[in-house]
Amino acid sequence: MNIEAGKAINTDVEETMNEEPSRTPSSTPPPAPRREDIDREDRSTVGDYTVADPRMTARQVNVYYGDKHAIHDVSMDIGRNEVVSMIGPSGCGKSTFLRCLNRMNDTIDGCRVSGEITLDGQDIYAKGLDVVPLRAQVGMVFQKPNPFPKSIYDNIAYGPRIHGLVTTKAEEDEVVEASLQRAGLWDEVKDRLAQPGTGLSGGQQQRLCIARTISVNPEVILMDEPCSALDPIATAKIEELIDELREQFSIGIVTHSMQQAARVSQRTAYFHLGDLIEIGPTDDIFTNPRHPLTEDYITGRFG
Ligand SMILES: Nc1ncnc2c1ncn2[C@@H]1O[C@H](COP(=O)(O)OP(=O)(O)O)[C@@H](O)[C@H]1O
Ligand SMILES: [Mg+2]
């Protein structure tokens, strides 16, 4: 099972072809452990990391930077129409894990990923898989808005053009307008589409980046602390947008703000030193954490 990024994960196709998919939920889940029964040194994941209708699945994912073991055996699903937030102290591996989900770690020298990650049942680390369309299907928005040094219009039109999604100018116009509408930016920029994207405010630039991600028809949108560089009003707009986007996309968001995780996500995953410590419905994680390490973090004992 353990392979390097870019190599085939499952070569035993014949063997597994006739098996039940392993993610089929069992009829009776094991009873949840009580908090007092969990050893605080135990780093195995508490909570059900599966969902009934997953869009992405990660199983026993490990990530190394050279000799450094940054992610240990992390398994979790991202379901349809849900926002999953990933929280935890700085350096616990949230960004590293997120980058596994669209193979962004491939671009980092010395970074090695093992385990299995699927999108709609397809192994995204399969041999020969083209990462360019994968990164359109699983788009990413970063902490610092990073518009291209191009016009607002071209920031959006560029992706659909290179992915061959548009052929005529009319189609291009349509995708540009629809993507900006979807990102809640159209009314603010429709009269200045030829101006540089970098001239927008920080919050507008971030919505431009979200529009750019949407323009190539993703299934999943990953966001790595998308509001960290924004003021509270711009942050509120992005949070509202995330909730609307959930109707169409699956969203994985890393945030250092527990309030934000509580506001935008349906499920929350708590990471600690490279381990996924606990995952579950957001309300449960914040009101009734089961692992003592989760409790320490959400009650502000560290982080
Ligand atoms: N490009 C890299 N090269 C080497 N080590 C890295 C790299 N990126 C992250 N790390 C290390 O991996 C661990 C997890 O980092 P990261 O995923 O950035 O955490 P988080 O996003 O939770 O703050 C940290 O110890 C960090 O120093
Ligand atoms: Mg990070």
List all distinct small molecules, including ions and cofactors, that are bound in this structure. Answer: adenosine-5'-diphosphate, magnesium ion
Approximate strand percentage: 15-25%
What is the residue-averaged pLDDT? Answer: 91
Which sequence of strands runs across the widest sheet?
6-7-8-3-9-10
Order of helices and strands: HEEEHEEHEHHHHEHEHEEHH
Top-tier CATH class: Alpha Beta
Low-confidence stretches: 1-21
Give a count of the beta strands, DSSP E runs of length 2 or more.
10
Could you give a short account of the major beta sheet? 6 strands, mixed
CATH architecture classification: 3-Layer(aba) Sandwich
Helicity level: 25-40%
Distance between the termini: 34 Å
Number of helices: 11
| Annotated CATH homologous superfamily | P-loop containing nucleotide triphosphate hydrolases
* Gyration radius, rounded: 20 Å
User: How many domains in all?
Assistant: 1
Helix-strand category? alpha/beta
